[in-house]
Amino acid sequence: MILDQIKDPAAIRKFKLEELNLLAREVRKRIVDVVSQTGGHIAPSLGAVDLTVALLNVFDPIKDRVVWDVGHQSYAWKILTGRNDRFPTLRSLNGISGFTNRDESPCDAFSTGHSSTSVSAALGLACAKELLQEPGHSIAVIGDGALTGGMSFEALNHAGHLQKDKLLVILNDNAMSISKNVGGLQKYLARMLVSRPYNTLKQQVWDLSQSLPANLRRRFILGAQKMEESMLNILVPNIIFEDLGFKYIGPIDGHDIRLLCTIFRRVQRHMVGPVLIHVVTQKGRGYAPAEKNASLFHGVGPFEAKSGKQNCSGQESWSDAFGRQLVELASANPKIVAITAAMTSGTGLSGFESRYPKRFFDVGIAEQHAVTLAAGMACKGIKPFVAIYSTFMQRALDQVIHDVALPRLPVVFCIDRAGLVGEDGATHHGAFDVSFLGNVPGLIILSPANAEELSAMLSFAAAYTGGPVAIRYPRGAAPCGGKPLSAFVPGKAHTVHKGEDFALVSDGGAYPLAESTWELLAQQGHKPFLINLRSLKPLDENLLRRLGQHCRYVFTFETNSVIGGTGARIAQILAEYPSRVVNFGYPDQFVPHGATSALNELIGFTPAQLAREIEKRLQP
């Protein structure tokens, strides 16, 4: 196999076309074989294989810095830049990340995981290279919806203004099939725009203008630009990039390695100023199940490589439980709408979209817009439910404070993936939402421990008009509580077990852990209180103060950083009480990627570890 012969990515720059095509086929097979065992973002990475091979054939990954937006399309990049041997450890504890990571390889120019950051990062690298007088290009590969994020256009606008040389943006367009405009004329235009004669002619026209009187020079330059733009407007789509200050090339076939290499090489040698190359690729390319259902194979758990059949636990997830309940609430209340930021399936809203298409809004990767869109709707009496992953909620904090909480608008934030999410790692763990939302005045924060509590909280939020409500719930299967919950009241905790001497107090995400810890302690003869908080803001201060008065210790459990979390707030409330408060949660560090069970073991967040820690504290 040619792949096994690559010890250094520099070798790829010497390959001939037939070797590059063979390499692309082998890389695709390697991705399918490994990701079928580990899970991961397979469809985006399969679509970018040919693009990756062409990039490495033309550019030096150390001298030329390549930034992969989000990083979930970079599996081929990892394989071909010295990590093929470690690729089977993908997304496992102490293995390689599912995204690009500077700590992992010198070939990774920027650590990624969230969307729409690549152009900003690549522009920053280009500016730094110029200041340091270093050679090489700075390249952003953006696609898979990331261009819908407003940050990418902020960066494109600034890059067009700065006109930095050796800045290349590759728009990986995989939302459409290869259309008619990727034909002979477009190939000819793409080659022409990056050719030496064309760019030499442009330079000569510019040089000629310098000899003209000042009053004529500007009119001459504007006339030449208008002539060129008029010609291209007839023949080239997406001329918006030209208006932003980029030289636009494309669209071109992102699976034609010969053409990609030709275009990249000519851009590298001839073009000045920022350049945008529009390539069209197919998500899941080369693997039939992923080609047929690219959305399903965007990010998957382990699956059967031959058929593509995915494993299923048979239990309803928190996301699905939320989506099902929201459909029921919407059937009774025509003012309920659902809003998501390019996460329809991930947040459990596919059913809502099918049932109420006119009341469903997918805004693309634009969390800030999603929140303020909801605020505008709420001003007119609409009841918006905004479903966003905890890690992406971070991007919209200003909008939550300024546009929703300050005017006390009754928007409901359904915060999915709160807590550790496993193999996606530090960029995706929902470890901070309580810390940053807990400081927002007037925002109610709820945390269900089971599906019945989630249902009751959603019903409460649907009827509540006093301000915003946030409901946070974890990834994984939603346990059943056994019976429906009667009318939910925020600020009231549930005493599951009465006890003496000390108490275990938990948010909903950590409740299974707290309950298992309670059982281990009970087996040792202890009789602790077990409290399910349900409401994180407001807290049940009356109950907490009683515990603080009568218990020697109050141990808090939460699926959030202990810095600024629920436990820290409880410690503030009980600061002057006899009880000592000990907080258990996520440490003040970024937790790596790996199976959630392994991560909890790593940070000491398992029933056995916590029971031992509590018993040590209880010693005289």
Protein architecture, described:
With 620 residues, this protein is of the alpha/beta class. It folds into 3 domains: 3-292, Rossmann fold; 318-472, Rossmann fold (3-Layer(aba) Sandwich); 494-618, Rossmann fold (3-Layer(aba) Sandwich), CATH 3.40.50.920. It has 24 helices and 17 strands. Helix 19 links the parallel strand 10 (444-446) and strand 11.
Beta-strand percent range: 5-15%
Low-confidence stretches: 176-186
CATH topology of the largest domain: Rossmann fold
Question: How many structural domains are formed by the residues?
Answer: 3
Q: Please tally the helical runs, counting DSSP H or I stretches of 4 or more residues.
A: 24
State the helical fraction.
40-55%
Question: What is the CATH superfamily classification of the largest domain?
Answer: Thiamin diphosphate (ThDP)-binding fold, Pyr/PP domains
- C-alpha Rg, in Å? 28 Å
- Described by its quaternary structure, the protein is single chain
- Across the major sheet, the strand order is 7-6-8-9-11-10-15
What does the overall shape look like? globular
Distance between the termini: 66 Å
For the record, the CATH architecture of the largest domain stands as: 3-Layer(aba) Sandwich
- Mean of residue pLDDT values: 88
Broad CATH class of the largest domain:
Alpha Beta
> What structural class results from the helix and strand content?
alpha/beta
Mind summarizing the main beta sheet?
7 strands, mixed
